[in-house]
Amino acid sequence: MLLWTVSKKLANKLTFILVILFYSVGVNAEEDRRANLPVYIELQPAFVVNYLGYSDKLKYLKASITLRASNIEGDTLVEANMPLVRDGLVMYLSSLTVEQVTGALAREESRKQAIAVLNEILKEETGIEPITDVLFTSFVTQ
């Protein structure tokens, strides 16, 4: 009977230890999964810039932009360098031509170029390229 009691207590302690071990591994795996999820950064206010139209006539572009960063660290990096990010986007958007903003294919190419511009700016400043995507949530030209 004494051996049975000792074995039962030992089994209970081992079960308790295993439950804690599995729980902590599950929590760490969940934290790792969350750390690797993309992060979306909505840039406010929307961008309103002039760009060159036909025959040197200025035109207007208004774009609402959301950035997708690779992870939480990318979000922090973008937020810490927001003035550089916004300036880079203003300079890039205002350098576009009518051909670059007209039509879905042209806008897709402009979006890809915006990713490259932002990552170049951030890499120069921080050594990291955190932007994985630039999403135009609104894009209006006049």
What is the terminal separation in angstroms? 89 Å
Please indicate the count of domains: 2
Return Rg in Å. 26 Å
At the first level of CATH, what is the class of the largest domain? Answer: Alpha Beta
Helix count, DSSP H or I runs of 4 or more residues: 5
Element pattern in H and E: HEEHHHHE
- Determine the CATH superfamily of the largest domain: Band 7 domain
What structural class results from the helix and strand content?
alpha+beta
CATH architectural designation of the largest domain: 2-Layer Sandwich
* CATH topology annotation of the largest domain: Tetrahydropterin Synthase, Chain A
How does the major sheet shape up?
A: 3 strands, antiparallel
Strand order of the largest sheet: 1-2-3
Work out the helicity level: 55-70%
Strand elements, count: 3
